[in-house]
User: Which sequence fits this backbone?
């Protein structure tokens, strides 16, 4: 979720109050003094009523500031009544990060979801081949639990998940999913799921387990096997469609996708992709793609379908620090550094903006798969929380691992490159 932008939701509310008139009983006997008194009282009453009406029908200015983590502040002036809502969303992602350039992470992982010993299961404390994760501002962890055909969420410091979407059996009803492979939460709290084997994108509003179809495969809207799903701060949805070797964007309230990159056939050219998996969009709207089949990470600037390689070497798999072997997920930090789930090498790699310097191994650097706290087995996704802690979807071990960012004791150099 994270991505800091300011969203304005203007709303003007005016309150109308009915002024009810009071009836007076007529007197049978009127004297001049009484008539004068009555007339004077009426004049004063009309004047007071006019003042009261102007006051009540005036415009009082209220400014309400709200965020996902704060309450409501109201400021009122005496003579005006205009309500304007300023809602500041604080999604977690590149915009919320402040990771030092020389940051390091603990090599030993903490299991925050699933079974630490690497066993699978279908109860709410277990996972089965999870594929995608999302962390919101409250450190709530959302997981696309592929082989359990569901999405679950774990609140911070809990050991059991809560069912968010899917009922555990594969199907295509509004209550079911079939091998979900991407999950994110939009700015309104809806959980968006790449329902891969149903070839559709589902939206689950807060508090409901019945999904609404945002987009579905059709002859006029080709949507193949989705490997990942990302949402930017404008609620645009990006899905990696490995069947078509491209990344497609869906804008809000429009179920027809717009192919962004990779619509030039399968290959290793600068405008091509081969079995793409993960994707990520940074604060400049640059798109990063884990080009799995080409052993590289491609970066596409806004409006361009020409990619530049920012990690790995095209069509050259390997285990050295300059090479990747089945890059399957990518994210980026506030420095523009990329973090990659290097699936075939069972490790997490970092590349700075100095591409030619090669990468740095962060986690799983022995290259040997396993279920110990320092090992990974077929890592599938990598994300940050708002503090810079690194989360890995350790798919082969059916668990999610958290690696704590280390305290920096010296001044870091500026971003390289």
Assistant:
């Amino acid at each position: 979720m994270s991505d800091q932008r300011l969203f304005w939701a203007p709303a003007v509310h005016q309150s109308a109050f009915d002024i009810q008139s009071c009836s007076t009983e007529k007197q049978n006997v009127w004297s001049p003094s009484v008539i004068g008194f009555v007339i004077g009282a009426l004049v004063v009453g009309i004047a007071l009523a006019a003042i009261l009406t102007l006051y009540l029908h005036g415009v009082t200015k209220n400014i309400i500031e709200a965020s996902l983590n704060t309450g409501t502040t109201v400021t009122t002036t005496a003579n005006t009544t205009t309500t304007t809502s300023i809602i500041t969303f604080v999604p977690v992602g590149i915009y919320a990060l402040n990771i030092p350039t020389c940051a390091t992470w603990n090599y030993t992982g903490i299991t925050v979801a699933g079974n630490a010993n690497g066993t699978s299961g279908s109860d709410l404390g277990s996972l089965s081949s999870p594929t995608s994760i999302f962390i919101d501002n409250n450190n709530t962890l959302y997981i696309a639990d592929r082989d359990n055909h569901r999405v679950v969420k774990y609140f911070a410091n809990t050991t059991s998940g809560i069912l968010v979407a899917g009922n555990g059996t594969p199907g295509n009803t509004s209550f079911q999913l079939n091998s979900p492979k991407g999950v994110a939460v939009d700015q309104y709290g809806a959980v968006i799921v790449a329902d891969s084997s149903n070839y559709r994108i589902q939206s689950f509003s807060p508090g409901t387990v019945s999904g609404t179809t945002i987009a579905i495969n059709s002859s006029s809207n080709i949507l193949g096997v989705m490997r990942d799903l990302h949402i930017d701060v404008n609620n645009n949805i990006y899905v990696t469609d490995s069947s078509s070797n491209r990344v497609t964007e869906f804008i809000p309230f429009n179920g027809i996708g717009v192919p962004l990159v990779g619509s030039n056939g399968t290959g290793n050219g600068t405008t091509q992709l081969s079995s793409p998996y993960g994707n990520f969009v940074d604060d400049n709207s640059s798109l990063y793609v884990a080009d799995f089949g080409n052993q590289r990470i491609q970066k596409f600037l806004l409006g361009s379908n020409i990619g530049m390689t920012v990690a790995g070497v095209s069509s050259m798999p390997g285990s050295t620090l300059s090479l990747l072997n089945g890059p399957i997920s990518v994210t980026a930090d506030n420095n523009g550094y990329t973090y990659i789930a290097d699936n075939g090498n069972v490790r997490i790699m970092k590349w700075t903006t100095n591409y030619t310097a090669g990468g740095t191994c962060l986690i799983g650097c022995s290259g040997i798969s396993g279920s110990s706290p320092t090992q990974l087995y077929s890592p599938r996704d990598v994300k940050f929380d708002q503090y810079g802690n690194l989360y890995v979807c350790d798919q082969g071990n059916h668990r999610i691992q958290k690696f704590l960012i280390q305290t920096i004791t010296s001044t870091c150099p500026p971003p390289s490159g």
Summary: Residues 1-30, 51-78, 80-93 have pLDDT under 50 and may be disordered.
